Automatic annotation (TrEMBL):
Belongs to the AB hydrolase superfamily. Lipase family. Residues 13-22 have a biased composition (Basic residues). This is Phospholipase A1 EG1, chloroplastic/mitochondrial. Phospholipase that releases free fatty acids from phospholipids. Catalyzes the initial step of jasmonate (JA) biosynthesis. Required for the biosynthesis of endogenous JA in seedling, inflorescence and spikelets. Not essential for JA biosynthesis after wounding. Mediates spikelet development and specification of empty-glume identity. Functions in a high temperature-dependent manner to maintain floral developmental robustness under heat stress conditions. Functions by safeguarding the expression of several floral identity genes, such as MADS1, MADS6 and G1.
């Protein structure tokens, strides 16, 4: 059946102009009333940023992973994105402040004092105050040209200011770690065998195992140094415990952030604090522990993963799907090859590495440009501008070049496999893989 249409005469389609209303005799003409339009309110970028984050104080537990970032990762919540970038910039400060000049008195330490470090790296408005620098010493004996001590500055502990507490909704204790730079750290990275963590002497938990190199870097101290700082673990536990006692009457959080090897140390530290119960009070009050991992490798076995989950340690892993470091160690023996049909546990399951936490997967840079796939600056840049195709690399490139020169200057005689390890380290570092 054909549809019918109704046509209107053209004269009816034309709009007739309304006749002007002329005033009658004796009437005054008043000006037409106009509704005053509200002037547009122009707000500065800082004001908009403050408004966007003002709600952080009411939802901070969710942003810190209280419910494992449910509905916040896919799609990525703008508020969570801002927090990830903020903590990533705190980690980036470690790279910017690390001194790789052999002629400097602060060689392989921080260029600046605690009071002005954040200001020097552009974070003067961060709202945090550094309370302690952290040094690490792997249990590897390597003669160095610049003295015998091999403890190197690896990060810092900071705490939020009173003003920042009002914005965050709690007092935040922050611990950050940089990634691999020195030769001893490189060798520690290649020590991929699993060892029992054994961080709680009263409860060894031999089924909880971690990578031996990371554990060595975390727990070893340098007894040859006259003015030794103690192990990385001793320094960190002592300072975090002090801050917890100082602010115990306030709402608190413990946040650990790191890149590459630093993310492994952050996870080990978070697990250690929870295993020892330093974040728990007698009145059943518990301080949440959150780890922000940027391009981090696997740290421990499935027993370690399960224990972290049992203790409530929340981990958000920010990874580039093209980053090979996030697939190590355990390239083959990992969480994907420990069971058949998720029912039958294979005999070697306890020796399989496993990632911990929730993954936030980024996809940037094809392998034609491998130097960028592991760069922390690239991670942060993409999170700031998710639609950008390319990220301008600076800072980290210079750091990697200087670090490679440092490795070449140190000759490591006496070990037949040492030259090969250094060559592999130089290759991996030149590609920006760790």
């Amino acid at each position: 059946m054909a549809s019918s249409t109704v046509s209107m005469p053209k004269q009816h389609l034309a709009l007739r102009k309304p006749r002007p209303c002329r005033p009658r005799p004796g009437m005054s003409v008043a000006a037409p009333r106009r509704t005053p339009s509200a002037a547009p309110v122009l707000r500065s970028r800082p004001e908009r940023a403050r408004e966007a984050t003002s709600r952080l104080a009411s939802v901070w537990r969710k942003i810190q992973g209280a419910d494992d970032w449910n509905d916040l990762v896919q799609p990525l919540s703008p508020l969570l994105r801002e927090e990830i970038v903020r903590y990533g910039e705190f980690v980036m400060a470690c790279y910017k402040a690390f001194d790789l000049d052999p002629a400097s008195q602060r060689y392989l330490s921080c260029k600046y004092g605690k009071r002005r470090m954040l200001e020097e790296v552009g974070l003067e408005s961060s709202g945090y105050e550094i309370t302690k620098y952290i040094y690490a010493t792997p249990d590897i004996s390597i003669p160095m040209q610049h003295g015998t001590c091999c403890g190197r500055w690896i990060g810092y502990v900071a705490v939020s200011s009173d003003e920042e507490v009002r914005r965050l909704g709690r007092r935040d204790v922050l611990v950050t770690f940089r990634g691999t730079v020195t030769s001893t750290e490189w060798i520690a990275n290649f020590m991929s065998s699993l060892r029992p963590a054994n961080l709680d002497p009263h409860d060894p938990r031999l089924d909880v195992k971690v990578e031996s190199g990371f554990l060595s870097l975390y727990t070893s101290d340098d007894s040859t140094c006259r003015f030794g700082q103690g192990s990385c673990r001793e320094q960190l536990l002592g300072e975090v415990s002090r801050l917890i006692n100082k602010y115990q009457d306030e709402e608190m959080s413990i946040t650990l952030a790191g890149h590459s090897m630093g993310s492994a140390l952050a996870l080990l530290s978070g697990y250690d604090l929870a295993e020892l119960g330093l974040n728990r009070f007698q009145k059943q009050r518990e301080i949440p522990i959150t780890v922000y991992s940027f391009g981090g490798p696997r740290v421990g076995n499935t027993g370690f993963k399960e224990r972290c989950e049992e203790l409530g340690v929340k981990v958000l892993r920010v990874v580039n799907v093209h980053d090979p470091v996030t697939k190590l160690p355990g390239l083959f023996m990992n969480e994907h090859f420990r069971a058949l049909g998720e029912t039958y546990q294979l005999p070697w399951s306890c020796s399989c590495y496993a990632h911990v936490g929730v993954e936030l997967a980024l996809d940037f840079f094809k392998m034609q440009n491998p130097a960028c796939v592991h760069d922390l600056g690239t991670y942060i840049g993409l999170l700031k501008c998710p639609k950008m195709v390319q990220v301008h690399k600076e800072g980290m490139v210079d750091l990697l070049a200087k670090a490679k020169m440092t490795l070449r200057k140190h000759k490591l005689p006496g070990w037949p496999w040492q030259d090969a390890a250094m060559q592999v380290g130089n290759l991996v570092q030149s590609l920006g893989l760790i």
